[in-house]
């Protein structure tokens, strides 16, 4: 039997609305210009490459014109030799080396314009293209999950703690990409859930819950699968709970096992000197409505004497120096947590502040950093993150950047693959 394909139009309610006549159509607006130095650098490189290609095309044209003229074989060879020697160095004679030379030339041009870009930005840090060797070169799913238990390095327990009004699934992407990037490593994840639903209570109560949760989880391990290393990943409020938990006497026997502390937008110095008046007003309103002890403690107003506040006392009893790697992430786009608080550093307002608050703030920074500086074997790194965010209300108030460290697959995967995974080995 033969079947004829019949194409019927869709029902009327599903058909596209016909376009209006040409005179009544809206004009296509020109594309918006983006004032971004990266685009300017790209255009500069593009123009330079076009000039090189144009110069090469002109020489090829000249060579083709010369080849059409009736010349002797000796003269023709001389013309070819002059052409090639004008294009490549004397030590390059084969086609393979010509391609190699072009790639080296492109790389040197890239390095040149990258340095110009960094000078224009007055940036003295390290960008990801400076890392010549990735933190992990193994492909995902390269080693079977069943072989993880045979890892000679033992069990690595990674505790993930969410932030204010969060839940145990907030750090799921971090967990996923660490497991994908380290196939064969025996990783155990504890996604803390004891505090979800009650993150507005005071830090002391939430610290007790986290300590009990960690000790209860570790007690479930049996030899030889007892954790040999313990790392912590915290977001926002969770980083403070982690620091408070590590400083508890019940955790003292675990201090030699501390490996990596990854802080994602953590308010280690509270919310002092926050430049966003809108966020400050919102936090004040939430503290009044929710009767939140944590927001009061973050503003360092939980005691009359600032040196009796929770964060100041925590800075005096800081145990970050027990970790082998301390990684701090902050962003100037984040209005919820000031970047100087997330990166544990001084800001201009704190330096100029001669009041008791400014003095206490500087003491907090010294109390946290001095033990780390005095231990040269501790890796201490600050990261300044800039996200490509749309122009929305969340971006305006700074919430988008605050949660981007949780929701951005691109950011999390790039950080871990380029440099982050080596701190979890």
UniProtKB/TrEMBL annotation:
Q: Where is this region: Disordered?
A: 1-30
- InterPro entries, per database record: AB_hydrolase_fold, DUF676_lipase-like, Lipase-like
Coiled-coil positions are none
Where does the record place Pro residues bias?
8-30
Q: Which residues form the DUF676 domain?
A: 153-347
Q: Which Pfam families match?
A: DUF676
Q: Which family does it belong to?
A: Belongs to the FAM135 family.
What's the protein called, per UniProt? DUF676 domain-containing protein
Q: Which source organism does the UniProt entry give?
A: Sipha flava (yellow sugarcane aphid)
């Amino acid at each position: 039997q033969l079947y004829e394909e019949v194409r019927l139009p869709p029902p009327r309610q599903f058909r596209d609305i016909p376009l209006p006549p040409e005179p009544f159509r809206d004009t296509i607006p020109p594309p918006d210009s983006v004032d971004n130095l990266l685009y300017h650098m790209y255009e500069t490189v593009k123009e330079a490459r076009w000039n090189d290609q144009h110069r090469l095309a002109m020489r090829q044209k000249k060579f083709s014109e010369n080849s059409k003229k009736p010349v002797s074989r000796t003269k023709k060879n001389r013309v070819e030799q002059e052409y090639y020697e004008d294009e490549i160095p004397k030590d390059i004679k084969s086609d393979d080396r010509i391609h190699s030379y072009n790639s080296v030339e492109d790389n040197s041009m890239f390095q040149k314009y990258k340095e110009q870009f960094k000078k224009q930005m007055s940036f003295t840090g390290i960008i990801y293209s400076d890392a010549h060797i990735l933190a992990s070169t193994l492909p995902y799913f390269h080693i079977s999950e069943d072989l993880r238990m045979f890892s000679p390095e033992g069990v690595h327990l990674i505790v993930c703690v969410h932030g204010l009004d969060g839940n145990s699934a907030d750090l799921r992407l971090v967990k996923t990409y660490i497991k994908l990037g380290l196939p064969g490593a025996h990783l155990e994840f504890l996604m803390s859930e004891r505090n979800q639903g009650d993150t507005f209570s005071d830090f002391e109560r939430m610290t007790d819950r986290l300590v009990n949760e960690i000790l209860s989880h570790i007690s479930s391990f049996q030899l030889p699968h007892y954790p040999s290393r313990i790392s912590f990943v915290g977001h926002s409020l969770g980083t403070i709970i982690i620091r408070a938990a590590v400083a508890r006497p019940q955790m003292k026997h675990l201090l030699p096992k501390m490996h990596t502390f990854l802080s994602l937008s953590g308010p280690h110095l509270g919310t002092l000197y926050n430049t966003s008046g809108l966020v400050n007003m919102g936090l004040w309103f939430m503290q009044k409505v929710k009767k939140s002890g944590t927001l009061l403690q973050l503003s360092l107003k939980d005691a009359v004497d600032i040196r009796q506040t929770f964060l100041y006392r925590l800075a005096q009893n800081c145990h970050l120096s027990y970790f082998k790697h301390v990684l701090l992430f902050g962003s100037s786009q984040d209005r919820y947590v000031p970047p100087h608080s997330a990166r544990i550093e001084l800001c201009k307002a704190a330096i100029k502040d001669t009041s008791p608050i400014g003095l206490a703030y500087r003491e907090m920074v010294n109390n946290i950093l001095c033990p780390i500086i005095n231990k040269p074997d501790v890796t201490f790194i600050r990261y300044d993150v800039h996200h490509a965010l749309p122009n929305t209300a969340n971006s305006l108030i700074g919430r988008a950047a605050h949660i981007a460290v949780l929701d951005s697959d691109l950011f999390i995967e790039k950080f871990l693959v380029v440099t982050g995974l080596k701190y979890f080995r």
